[in-house]
Every structure is written in C-alpha cells, then in structure tokens.
Amino acid sequence: MTVLNHRPLLVLAALAASLICAALIVLLRPLLQRYALARPNARSSHVVPTPQGAGIAVIAATLVVACVYALAAGEPIPLMLFGATVFIAATGFLDDVRTIPVLPRLLLQAAAVAVVVFSAPADLRIVPAIPLALERAGLLFAGLWFVNLVNFMDGLDLMTAAEVVPTTAAIVLISWLGGLPLAPTLTAATLFGAMLGFAPFNRPVARVFLGDVGSLPIGLLLGWCLLALAWHQHIAAALLLPLYYLADATLTLLRRIARREPFWAAHRTHFYQRATDNGLTVPAVVTEVFVLNVALAALALASVWLNSGIADIVLLATGALAVALLLYRFSQQKVSQASRRA
Question: What is the value of pTM for the model shown?
Fold first, then answer.
C-alpha cells in the first residue's frame, strides 16, 4: 500500500501524538518544576526559573505512536533509529540535570547519529558516484551538526515549534505526492502532532521548555526524515526545509570561529537572539521565522512537484534570498521613535 492509502492513519497518528504529549506534560510538569528547573543566566532569553524536560513527553508521544501505527501498517520504524533516539534523549536528559563536558557529549551524540547513518541499507544513496563509506562519513558529520544546531536554535519560546511544525507538515505532504515511504512519513506526522501538543505550554511566556532531552532527539528524528528525502532524490526539498536553521546556526558558528571566540560555549549571538536584543519581541521573531518556514515548505513542495533541475536551482536561490533578508533584518538594531525625532 502507498502512503496515499494511509492518509487517515497519518491524521489519527498526529492527533494521538498531540493528545498524549499534552497529557504527559501536564503529568510531568510538577516533577520538572521540582527537579529540572532552568534558572536564568546571562545567556538566557527567559527571566524567571522555568521547568525544562518537556521533551520527554514530545519524544515519548512521537516514538510510541509512530511505532504502534507503523507496526499496524506493516512497515515498522527502524529499530536502530528507535534505539538511537532513546539513547540521545537519555544523553540530553543527563546534560539537563548534570552538565556533561563538551567532548564526551559530542562523542555520545556522534554514536547515536552513527547508528542511524551506518545501519541504513547500502542501496540508499544520495550521490552514487562517490564511495559509500565517504558518503556515510559525510552524513555522520552533517547529522552531528544538525542535531546540535537544533539544540542551539532552541533558545526562544516556540522557536522549535516554528521550525518543526512547518517542516514535518511539508514532509507529510511531499509523501502524499509519492516522495517518501511510510516509515519516515509516519515519523514526521507523529512529531508534527507531538509538537502541536507541546506548543500551548511553550508559547510566550513559556511554562515549560523542551530541554536537551527534547531538542537533541528532535534533531535526530527530523534529520532522519530530511535524509530520507535526500535518499529519494528530493535533495532540494531536503535543503530548503531546514534552510533558516542551517543558515542562522552555521553563520553564527563561522562568525564566532573567525573572532576566535570559544565557539563550543553557550552564547546568545544567533541572529534570532540578536533580533530580541535589537528590539523585536519574542512573538514577533518567532512569527517571522514561522512565516519564513511556511514559505520554505511551499518551495520544497514545488521542487518535488516540478521535478526539474532548473526549477530546483531557482527555488533554492529564492529560499536563500528569503533567509538572507530575514537574517539581515534580525541583525539590524531597531531605531526608537525618540531616536528618530532626535
């Protein structure tokens, strides 16, 4: 059966993940308030102590619902993906409650990404002209960076939802165009639903945060779904969907390296953080990021629909221009009315 035959299943899976996630957050929040409180510091965007760890609910709802529905449909979620997601979530939880040094943390994350990348069937290729081992090594590096950049970008209320919701929705729609098998489609649908269940608790001012226990496995699952797009030769779509996150995090890293700053240390110099420092409100920043991601999702869908190399180049250039304009806007200091009159 094709993904089209499973449309009702995908809708039910998303709904179930949303309800389960919301219920788990309600149950977990008192415990998180007691044992996993994120206190404000010089690099924080929040000003009051806020419980973190709601990612437990997001990941639990995503994995449980996806696995149950996938088994019912006869196309189970890869066991290695399930195990790696649980492992990296546990690593994130440990880092939330007791900080892990940088090098061991990266090695643990790399182990989880490596399990996903190297356990994939050998016939899943992006560029068949290069050796398989070289391609998989590149994917390991890219996957490790993607997992971390999702964590880095989880610095404002609703920011991760503004990225994940349009991206996963687009992945499901692309699958309906015949672009993906059921397993990554179902994973995207349940992650979409779980993030919708989380969003009401994280809207400004947030009552709970994801924590590393949420952002790291979300990065792993979302990265796997995007990788599935690339493996099925929808490379432009796989680049367009996370383009804002990729640009903000990568340019920030390169800027910090160029300035010889300790780039591995926590900071608040991402473009979206600079936007709030420059006078934009958190809801305004998140709304603009969400609108941009919806536009990128539309471009990704167009690339799959048109299935043309020339169209892919035009769509990628359009997406890059839109991202560049928003990054430029975020980096500009807002001028007050009083300053203008002066």
Answer: 0.93
